[in-house]
Amino acid sequence: MLTQLSGRFVQMVIVLFFLSVVTFVMMKLAPGDPILAILLASDGALSQAEQEAAREALGLNRPIYEQYGSWLLKVVQLDWGQSLTSNREVWDILMERLPATIYLTLGSVVVLMVIAFPLGILAAKYQNKAPDVSSRIIALLGASIPSFWLALLLIYVFAYQLNWLPTMGSGTLRHLVLPSLTLGFVMAPEYIRLLRAGLLDTLSRDYIKAARARGISEWRIMLRHAMRAALLPIVAVSGVSLGSLLTGSVVTESIFGWPGLGSLAIESIRLRDYPVVQGYVLFCGVCFLMANWLSDVGAAVLDPRIRMRGGRRP
Amino acid sequence: MNRKRCHTFWLKSSMVCMAFVLFLTACAAEGQNQYPAAATTGPDQSGEGKSITIIHSLPVDTLDPHNGWISVRAGVAETLVRLDENMQVTPWLAATWEAKDPLTWVFTLRDNIRFQDGTKLDAAAAKASFERGIADSRPLAASLKIASIEANGQVLTFRTTEPHPAFPTELVHPTASVISIAAEEASGKEAFNKAPVGTGPFKVTGFIPGKEVTLIRHEHYWDELAKLEEVTIQFNADANVRTLAFQSKQADIVYHLAPESLDLIEKDQELDVESVTSLRTHYFTYNPASDHVADLRVRQALDKLIDRDAIVEEIMLGHAMPANGPFHALLPFGSKKAAQKLDPDGALKLLESAGYTKGPAGIWEKDGKPLKLKLIAFTGINPELPLIPLLVQSEAAKVGIAIEIVSVEYPEVYIKDNTDWDMSTASYLTSPRGDGGSFLNSAYTLGGSYNPAHIHLEELEAILRELNDTRDVPKRHELTRSALEIIHEEMPHSYIIHPNILVGIHQRVTNWKPGAEEFYIVTNKLDVQ
What we know:
The structure holds two protein chains of two kinds.
Chain A: H1 2-29, H2 34-42, H3 48-58, H4 64-76, H5 90-125, H6 130-144, H7 147-161, H8 173-203, H9 206-213, H10 218-246, H11 250-256, H12 261-270, H13 274-302, H14 304-308
Helix pairs in contact in A: 1-13, 5-6, 5-8, 5-10, 5-13, 6-8, 7-8, 7-11, 8-10, 10-13, 11-12, 12-13
Chain B: H1 2-31, E1 51-56, H2 70-73, E2 81-83, E3 89-91, E4 94-101, E5 104-109, H3 123-136, H4 138-144, E6 146-152, E7 155-160, H5 167-170, H6 181-187, H7 189-192, E8 202-208, E9 212-217, E10 230-235, H8 239-247, E11 253-255, H9 262-266, E12 271-277, E13 280-286, H10 296-304, H11 308-315, E14 320-322, H12 344-353, E15 357-358, E16 364-366, E17 369-370, E18 372-378, H13 387-399, E19 402-408, H14 411-417, E20 423-429, H15 437-444, H16 458-467, H17 473-490, E21 493-506, E22 509-510, E23 527-528
Helix pairs in contact in B: 3-4, 10-12, 15-16, 16-17
């Protein structure tokens, strides 16, 4: 177990290192200039000589490897640097935005489960019948509708026409409903299809036939016996979904004015606030790796064969 | 059996749907009274219980008054001088000011002002605030050019590093706010930047970065007490969502509405839209090193191919003014000349006089070089910016000029790194402080922040030198207009339009109009019926 954990840790460090290198290089190679971006955003004016002095003072004129090296050295010492725009600590900024993203993640997971599980189960139980066709249509809709369009549609219906829910913002359960519905509905199709396919595959197995022969009710077979095996691919996919939710949804957060990590990322990229973007990417990397690790643990709990093979999936 | 299963399915589906609807209804039930309109009126008309919600388009991550506009916009901080509705500099925290010599400005502060933490505003407190601002904000330090500050009672004396006749206008900018350094020392910088302490009519009660600021009335405000008790300012960068929030009456004042939604808004009797001329100008910069546009006649021809009326009517849906120069004609120093109309015939004559002839492919050419231009388009935050080059490209194509459009995020960066361009789009606030000197210096002196193309006009430089030595305001306006004449003759830029600011206002909002400068949003006079 200890070997497995240390192996995972080494993998994580290597992945994060390459992630940070790629992001740093891409950000630096992309056109744009933080000094100009900040000045344009605030309609400030600095002469070109003053702009050069500002770049010099912030170390933006140094070779890229030197900039990366000094950033990495600080990160190793748990110093994530300071924002170029607000001069605040990057770690503080990330931690300030994280609770809103976690809140939205929980809401989206609830919506995802409320939509995906009943539809997936009903689609498998009533294969090629009305419930199956309905769930496939819903899954197709969810997969086809862009999240920004769905968000605007939900705002139009529930906030503007019905005036039930707020158009934007955060802080109460009501504020959470529309962004959660948007994210949950867009993510649900994949789970509906996986659950349906997994259940159909499992329901054709011999041990299920044996259970039926023993007179166990169909719902009990479905929920107690078939579901366990059908959940395996879902648990594997959930690692990626959870990772992407925890790193914030750029589009949904921006539209609903949700103060999470996604909206922070888009603002920081627009202003070329390199330290915040680097910190965000590193944080995302950790979230993804942790979520994947959790999904592996979940799979091992569900499937004894994984545990017996030392953590490797069959 | 199948029928039974089907019945079970529909029964269970109905239950799931009902549960979902109940969940939504439960969520909504609590807030149903909240959304008929965001402004609420309390038991009396003295301000108790009155609140308002404002939505702005630019999310902010800090309330640091020296590094953003939001503290002045929110009525938390104030500046020594301010702009009135005619864009004239008027007293605010300072009662009077005068120039002792070209390098010395003396301001006398009002004697009856206290910060929101109870400390008195005297010259020493203001000095500490300016020292913090200069240390923390490069643009502020660059604009003020302060060599030293002296404080004596209520008299604050600034010495500048060079003659600075426009010094008072630079103090109008929100980043020149006067804040309580004593409060910052007591709370720490991180906490202070989330709840800064100024002298304004409202105090910060809460701040969620990127989302909202909540404010409460400052009960010991030095001027007339605010009419409202509470104000919420929310941020959302999406124009469609802001517009829907306004249409749902979940906000009373909404900035930067989507122009295409105005017809729907106008049908609602409770909602109004103010279309205010802004201090921003969209324009083209011509590359002085380009083979083609280095010739004045080609620049003049291109200027005649800009259909400003069509841009105003079709792209801006009527919410803009054709530009005849960098400054709006309504400003005291703006040019009164009519904006250039679309004139393809005039453009062709100019091309002919410049030695161009029609080539076999219908493209104008000179010395075997076809008139093919590269236009760097600014994607920017204004949705109309990428559309303007398309319209010009279309008009130019009709007369035989080929324009290739290259879209970039920051034209200044492209211009700095490349020489293979002929025209570029730009958009700046050209007179944010009630004076034209700052823009003229930035755009027409070598090394200026708005002059990445290195435009240099000898004749203009002489006028700018005189302008930079002139304190008398009418004389400054006259010199600015003289500079505009030269700019119009030499045409290093083609000024296109001044876009309007579209602000949605619920009819219950009283005593308030949006200003062109967008500095003063929450005021002590702002009220609801």
